[in-house]
Amino acid sequence: MRIKRHYTKPGECPYSSIGFKKVKSELRSLDGIKCSNKIEFSVPENWSQVACDILAQKYLRKTGISSNLKAIKETGVPTWLYRHEADYNDLKTKNSKMSGETDARKIFDRMAGCWAYWGWKGGYFTKEQDALVFYDEIRYMLATQIAAPNSPQWFNTGLHWAYGITGAPQGHSFTNHKTGQVEKSKDAYEHPQPHACFIQSVNDNLLGNDGIMSLWTKESRLFKYGSGTGSNFSNIRAKGEPLSGGGQSSGLMSFLKVGDVSAGAIKSGGTTRRAAKMVVVDIDHPDIEDFIHWKTEEEMKVAALVAGSKILKTSLNAILNSCINCSGSDEECFDISENASLKREIKNARNNGVPDGAIQRVLHLARQGIDEIEIPELDADWDSEAYKTVAGQNANNSIRIPDIFFKAVENNETWDLIRRTDGAIAKSVSARSLWQEISKAAWSSADPGIQYKDTINAWNTCSNDGEIVASNPCSEYMFLNDTACNLASLNLMKFCNQDNKFDIKSFEYTSRLWTIVLEISVMMAQYPSKEIAKRSYQYRTLGLGYANLGGLLMSCGIAYDSNAGRSAAAAITALLTGSAYLISAEMAESMGPFPRFKHNSEIMLRVIQNHRRAAEGRIAYEGLSYQPLPLNRSECPFDGLCQQAVKVWRKAEKIGSLYGFRNAQVSVIAPTGTIGLLMDCDTTGIEPDFALVKFKKLAGGGHFKIINNSVPRALTSLGYSKQKIKEIVSYALGHGTLKGSNGINHDILKKKGFSDYELNQIEDLLPEAFDIRYAFSRWTLGDEFCRDALGLTDKELRESGSDLLPVLGFSIDDITAANTFCSGAMTLEGAPHLLVEHLPVFDCATPCGVVGTRSLTHESHILMMAAAQPFISGAISKTVNMPADSTIDECSKVYKQAHGLGIKAIAIYRDGSKLSQPLNSAIFNQDEIDELDETLKKPSHERAFTASKRIVEKIVEKVIEKPITRERLPDRRTGYIQKAAVGGHKVYLHTGEFEDGSLGEIFIDMHKEGAAFRSLMNNFAIAISIGLQYGVPLEEFVEAYTFTRFEPNGPVQGNDRIKFANSILDYIFRELGISYLGWEELAHVDPNSGAGDQLGLGAAERHSNEEIIENHLTLPVYSKGFNREGINDDNEDNIVPFTFIKANITSSMGVQSEEQILDVDIELSDAQKLETPINNIGNSSDEKISRFRGYTGDPCNECGHFTLVRNGTCQKCDSCGSTTGCS
Predict the structure, then answer these.
(1) How open is the CA angle 331-332-336, to the nearest 5 degrees?
(2) Taking the CA of residue 1127 as centre, how many other CA atoms within 13 Å lie in the half-sphere pointing to its CB?
(3) Burial track 610-642 (b if 16+ CB lie within 10 A, e otherwise)
């Protein structure tokens, strides 16, 4: 092949026109905890911090690179393409340490060099100069973010070529490009694994090479190296079908659950990301109904586990307490005819569904003197034990449906389910009922997705070799079983000129060159099995695609949901695939077609002909049962694009008919999650933007607000002046200050009592504030200022300390106006100067900001997919997002509409269809549910105010700001002394408190410990005390020192809440966290369980209340810490030691007359109901905040940020770039 220069110049380094800078990358969680070590490296100047973080944290090789490398000569290979390895004969190499990559140019060089090296060895270049041009052009495109390959290329490609890195073989195989024979890999890196997408077969046998258990092994090999896989499991016989050795099969679902567990145990790429897997089942399988309901039922199991664990804990502890708090004899306490309290609690437990066996077990434990029982309390978080307990959580599920089924649904016919062993009818069901179940399941749990069998195979270029029956996890790669596909995507914004003209020449050139990159990758790659190595060589499927379509359309002032937008997408896709097929045909002319082309030539040329007809805008097609959307040339906004696409397709068809094609498939539209962020794309794949204003991570932690980069350019394209653009952008982003604001500004605040010092404090917080209420809190301003200068009472601070503006007399309208001025509306709805007819240009997948109401309809997503699909070899990875109030019928219509428009596969996601992210708890928690009725009656702007207020109240409690001055404790101060023994070593903890009851100092004394350790702990306590007095939040200390492990450690005696500690510091800060912060999760004993002190009273606990009161002195308590952070806040004098509280509870239940209990219905007062802990099934405040900002609410498993967004059928992290998919 001859390669011409387009971006670079002869004799010049491709980086000569690109500036580079030194940057640092350090990932931190939202609470500031470091997630990764700081890395310093060089990158191109124009790269964002997010792109730098992805490169550093995911792709740069961290170690194993020698500082002294030597070239390995190879006959026939140019010297500049020699591979390198460590020179172990050099003394410096022997004594030097291995290092990692610290310059982005190194990773660009190793990937491009590896492709050029294998391309040269494979005969892809006519002359050495062609290889050099290829090497330079690819390096330039990588550095300027024009294009990027999928993640496995960044992980693996070039490590052996550039650095000589080797590793033990992992069972992979490759096809020798010279002989065409499959060979076993002798090294883990010489032949890299660059493919992201795999489709594997599985047959109806247990232990064979193509059987069920063998599949789990091959899947594991793929997951380990960061790839994803899919399989169709329809060959497996159904439950009850006969086995050859007698007996009956356990059925499809039993094996799917085994595979699900296997996938869940292996983290993709060796990280914390879960495996990427697709499970496909044909709709005529006898077990299809169980498969449809699988995830819905598992979701309900999660709900049952969460609710049941709470009921079980409450009920069993109540039974236990009714036994140990009984004042009678042992026999009387365990006799329900004598112990009315026990009888009532057993009855309540049974009514709540607690099994008799669990009740009996607790009674046996109580008889043996056990006075507490630990029951795990589960929650509905995605990574919780509840979800880990159930099945079906580690794969995407899809059903393969033929056209005939939709006809059966339309005609209300029956549908036959076919046995796998003999082909007989196992069962006949109503087609409409089955379809309704599919729609209901998708509505309930977002699964299953649909793959349209006949549509997929109508575009199958190799149908003579078999049907396409499955896909990769994200559904963009669809081809024959036991094949693989490596992906690359082009950044569409790089081809848009300043005058909004599309650079057709550059786009066509780039598409051709990256097709060669992917083709070379097929030749050099290793694969997880011999069969995949063989068939990938025979078909050579590629996955070229693009990213940033939504950003391109918005930048040009084109609405995503418009004929012009869809026409542009179709034309770009047509030129991409046409150019790829053209270069594929040209490679076939010089190197020969893919080995199986001859057997499928007639079929493939028919498919190519249909692609060409769609590009020409024709309505007649061959072999299609539906009418695809042709290219709408009349409304394409880019001049010459459609005409060039037609020209390229005609040329590709002509050359292909003469020489064939080098590749059976060339294009897909992948999610491009990670690599989209690596290229600084505003949008990914074919998706629109998810929100106009997003929160990006700063280096070293923290976030800042940015507006979609396409917005200012879009406003320019729409004809707005610079001044108007500035005002519109300011409306969305805000001014970051209250100076000049209406309603709340510096002048008004000064009249309220604010000084310049407090105003400066507030101004420092405003630029990064999601809402101005962040800045106006008691923790920012300080209680002393709030009381003395603002005149607020302790009650007002306690009740409204997280949002002081209403208490200061500001109305909802004042706060809303100031918020819009300062923090921005985060939407363009209502922006000054913006015309209503221009709003569709800025529509996103979700409503933007607090007051935004506009979003793209689900139909707009489907129409965009339908416009692009006729020009793609494979398919489109895209999830159709639907609002929470969508109905089952609407889900059904989406699936049917997609089928009618010729889309190959589709998945829907209804907001709130997962328990881990319920919509109605995204803002309101259980304690606020009573406010909903009133809130919903308010006008929309007041509802938005209430919603944002809830979020602020949740966040501001974690952001504690105080002036950097030392606050002295009063001379006469409150506090408490806690004596305990940790692992047999006595510890005395003495606390001192500020006037408001918060912790100000601690003293630690170790009884009979060595002088050194005792002094060390004493000085440690002084350091902590000074930190507290200088405003360091106690939360920081508790988070830092809990769970630290060193000796002495072990069981804890003498503390009513803590029963085990990993170290002295672990014990101390657990105690302080429980007492002063109310962090009950650090305790081992539930304060509401009534369990006694570990040291206890023994048999005395069964004596009368009077005897307990006489034997235990009631102490007056003034310490907030002793009072366990606010218990009985309304009556601080009502405080007694723990054992006395327990006796008092018994007394309040009327133990004096057990017969009376039987006839008494226990009623809680309104106050008691409010004090009763309510266990929410919902998200943490971080999840709520993230959903309010436009994210999904799930935490990223790699960096911990709640910045995941929907990305095709996967999710991607907007902070670190990791994805839940395979690309």
Answers:
(1) 110
(2) 22
(3) bbbbbbbeeeebeebeeebbbbbbeebbbeebb
pLDDT per residue as tens digits for the range 862-896: 999 999 999 999 999 988 888 888 899 999 999 99
What was the pLDDT predicted at 1161?
Answer: 34
Q: State yes or no: is 763 an active-site residue.
A: no
Report the relative pairing of strands 197-199 and 228-232 from DSSP bridges: parallel
Residue 449's alpha-carbon distances to 210, 595, 883, in angstroms, are 26, 33, 17
CA pair distance 655, 779, nearest whole angstrom: 73
CA distance 150 to 193: 11
Range scoring the smallest mean pLDDT among 26-30, 34-38, 977-981, 1066-1070: 26-30
Q: Which residue has the tokens 């010729």?
A: 902
Is residue 1009 classed exposed, middle or buried when 0-12, 13-18 and 19+ CB atoms within 10 A define those classes? middle
Distance CA 674, CA 491 (A): 13
Please state, in angstroms and rounded to a whole number, the distance separating the CA atoms of residues 661 and 196: 23
Q: What integer is the mean pLDDT of 839-849?
A: 90
Q: Which pLDDT tens digit goes with each residue over 1180-1201? A: 455 555 554 556 767 776 666 6
pTM of the model: 0.73
Instruction: From the candidates 52, 323, 474, 1196, give the one annotated as an active-site residue.
Output: 474
How many helices and strands in the chain, by DSSP H and E?
A: 43, 27
How many Cα atoms sit within 13 Å of 57 on the Cβ side? Answer: 27
* Active-site position among 476, 829, 1154, 1183: 476
Other CB atoms within 10 Å distance of the CB of residue 887: 12
Tell me how far apart the alpha carbons of residues 895 and 882 are, in angstroms, rounded to a whole number.
12
**Residues in Cβ contact with 135 at an 8 Å cutoff, skipping those fewer than 6 apart:** 112, 113, 116
Of 232, 472, 491, 1123, which residue is the catalytic one?
Answer: 472
The confidence score (pLDDT) of residue 171 equals 84
Q: Could you give the CA distance from residue 624 to residue 5 in angstroms, rounded to a whole number?
A: 41
Answer positive or negative: Cα dihedral of 259, 260, 264, 267: positive
Report the relative pairing of strands 1050-1053 and 977-982 from DSSP bridges.
Answer: antiparallel
Question: What does the mean pLDDT of the chain come to?
Answer: 82
Nearest to residue 15, comparing CAs of 110, 148, 128, 141? 141
- 397 in Cβ contact with 471 (< 8 Å): no
Q: Residues 184-209: pLDDT tens digits? A: 999 989 999 899 899 999 999 888 88
Is 891 designated active site? no
Residues 6+ apart with CB under 8 A from 842: 554, 692, 711, 714, 828
Angstrom distances, CA of residue 198 to CA of 46, 373, 1170: 34, 49, 54
Measured between alpha carbons, how far is residue 1112 from residues 1031, 1107, 1149, 1152 in Å? Answer: 38, 9, 21, 20
What is the mean pLDDT of the segment spanning 1-27?
92
Query: Which are the contacts of 422, defined by CB distance < 8 A and separation ≥ 6?
Result: none
**What's the sign of the alpha-carbon dihedral 288, 294, 295, 300?**
positive
- Percentage of the chain beyond pLDDT 70 is 81
476 is catalytic: yes
DSSP 835-868: -GGGGGGG--SS--TTT------HHHHHHHHHHH
pLDDT band at 905 (very low <50, low <70, confident <90, very high): very high
Q: How confident is the model at residue 962 (pLDDT cuts 50, 70, 90)?
A: very low
**Exposed, middle or buried, 788 (CB in 10 Å: 0-12/13-18/19+)?**
exposed
Calpha distance 13→21 (Å, rounded) = 17
Cβ neighbourhood burial of 1168 (10 Å; 0-12, 13-18, 19+): exposed
Residue 983 reports pLDDT greater than 70? yes
